[in-house]
Please model this.
Amino acid sequence: MRTETEQTIYLKDYAPTPYRVDKVDLDVTIAPETSRVRALLTLSPRPGTEPGTPLVLDGDELKLKSIAIDGSPLALTAYETTATTLTIFEPPNRQFVLDTEVALEPERNVRLMGFYRSGGTWCTQCEPEGFRRITYYLDRPDVLAPFRVTMTADKSIAPVLLANGNLIEAGDIEGGQHYAIWDDPFPKPSYLFAMVGGDLGSIHDTFTTMSGRKVALGVYCTHGKEEECRFAMDSLKRSMAWDERRFGREYDLDVFNIVAVSDFNFGAMENKGLNIFNDKLVFAKPETATDDDYYSVERVIAHEYFHNWTGDRITCRDWFQLCLKEGLTVYRDQEFSSDERSRPVKRIEDVRALRATQFVEDAGPLAHAPRPDHYREINNFYTTTVYEKGAEVVRMLATLLGEAGFRKGMDLYFERHDGDATTIEAFIKVFEDANGVDLQQFQTWYLQAGTPEITVRDSYDAASQSYKLTLSQNTAPTPGQPEKHPLVVPVKFGLIGPNGSPMSWSSASGDVRGDLLVLSGESATYEFKGVPNKPVPSLFREFSAPVKVISSLTPADRLFLARHDSDPFNRWQSLQDVALTLLLEAVRGKAWSASDIDALAEALADTVASPSLDPAFKALTLTLPNESLVARTLGTDVDPDRIRATRLALLAGLTSRLEGSLEAAYRSNIVTAPYSTDTAQSAQRSLKNGALSLLVLGGSSLGSRLAREQYDAATNMTDRYAALAASVVGWTSDAEALLGNFRTMFTADPLVLDKWLGLNAIIPDAGVVKRMEAILADPSFPRNNPNRLRSLVGTFGMGNPSQFARPDGAGFRFVTSFVADVDTRNPQVAARALTAFRVWRSFEPNRRAAAEAALTTLRDAGGLSRNTADILERTLAG
Ligand code: 0A1
Ligand code: ZN
Model:
């Protein structure tokens, strides 16, 4: 039985390695079944290393074939291998070359970490600890070295040989073999290493950087898919131009290649000069990809490209600092998407996703700080807290410092830390130094888990024309962090007068900086003088901080803001809050009055009819709080069936009042022009499909008829999928037949199969578990492909709350049995699927007991991977 202390790694224990790597020279022979990696590592003791200090390299499932130092083979007594290490007892006390050779079996590597084969393509995934599955190494992010890689393979099987950096030599050798030598002059940690060999198609283009250098760009894929890579290539070029414009960042190598592979544990990977992508984030054509798919391709291409500076040129000192590169890079990709498309729409979408994932994580047993201080399994920290909350923290920094101050800090970051493996503290310091401010308290955002709750109180005194706002903050305890400190909370705000216009004031007291209130203590009062009437406050405009707000606004105030606020985010938020309040009241047993529904319906109708609002914004307004949001807001005693019934009743009430406006919105947003991914066109589709979805879910027979017609007539996937999804979520009488038709129409396309699997998983019917069991039991089901597995089981756990949490426990057991099975092959996929249980304690007692029983059965069966055991133990304990 492993113990807590054996497993846990602490930030406070950080120390540099006693040896550094000066140079890496790899010679890789790729061949079916067994490949070989010979590594020549030039190593030196760091200053201060005692002579005779052992050198301990990481290794995982490696077969050592030979070992030598400076050309002399090592005696058996001079070294030792274990399952996870290679130790050289007494390395030379000067620079030396360690020469090892290992044999690998990439075809058998179904964990998809290290060197593996996807389809026919050999590829790698090294972040965070995959390089140790390729060769013995100091596999940690603060060991930086220049790499040179010679790859050799049979030219007929692998005509394409790619690695990081620039290609410096290539040629044929006898016996049908060929080789390529790639050299990466930028010192990098091993997690950024990549190589690819295979028979691939490709498209090529060039980008001329701001200093006039020409960069050769390539996107590689399965033969026949080349045309589907054009949008990815276009996104790459736009990303390169944006990073120059917005952050002054120029690309640094002569080539930038992207490879699409079908088996990949994540979205994509930022290996220096050779990004490897899950093919679902590269391929796009109108018949099989939705507008959302296109935007995901654009966003992830940008994200990985932006890592070249925030991740590769400046990397992390240790894995605790993961959000140094991830939070910052997500912030950068969010800004890119906002600049390329609609800023308010992007913000609303991001906030919705943050609340649906990160707020849930933060409220449950897996809560952790953006920069945690200990972990058992680093793979379990590629979380929404590290990524999305990490981005929110960077966004708050930008809000507090202003655009120019933020840019000054970023410039200093690139100047001061280029080539470093660094920390959150160093990141904060550049903003302090560039702006002459103290950000020590702000840094707490990185160290503290949990979502702060901000309570708002206000009062108006007509006699003195004074308006007072009092804000107080509280963060509930999270696992391992019982005590919380006050945070620096930037509150973008405005005051709105009775006629709906912005109100000004003659003087303000408290920490008011233009349109920003700053809350730093537990509570603060801001007083505005010279305010002629009682205003309605619009707080947290643009969602200026990742907090929950308990406000003093009445439903009438909210409806007023929904009409008059100049901030689109808060207009959207206000109607969501009105709807959420109604849902919560009804779930708690309070009946609605017809006038409550009338008022919400009227506000929605006005929004939809407004000539000045963006159709995509209108579509988001029509998307009312989902079942999970209601459950999360309730927090305890959750009965998902009751929530679902209540929500459907509200939608029915609204739809019966809105049928005319929804039909008008539907008909007036039909796009007749040829399909394009252009923002205006996709906005129209989103409004049309949002109206359709509300009609169907609200039980309108017009809705289901339109859905069926749209499905049949669709010429693009956005419309076809929207019609199908509405029918499935509303479980209309057509749904089953449409699902069958969809399956046959796209049998040959695995990425469309994922859509079908995802829809099967969200069927709101008691038959869903049996149906999924049958799908998984089909011998032709690709049981090792992460996309397929996640589309079915991941979607079920996160997207079908009433069936996942069935009172009989069958939904819970379906997921735990799946986890037990997949864990033996791909622990990362298994561990992630298990995180669906992060909400288990919020259920009412029966369901809670059923969830606990499923989890304890999984634990008692034993034999779990470290990944899955870590999630399981934390989930049960928290
Ligand atoms: N750095 C990547 C994320 C990533 C992490 C682990 C992976 O392998 C299991 C793959 C990718 C990113 O932020 O996109
Ligand atoms: Zn990233």
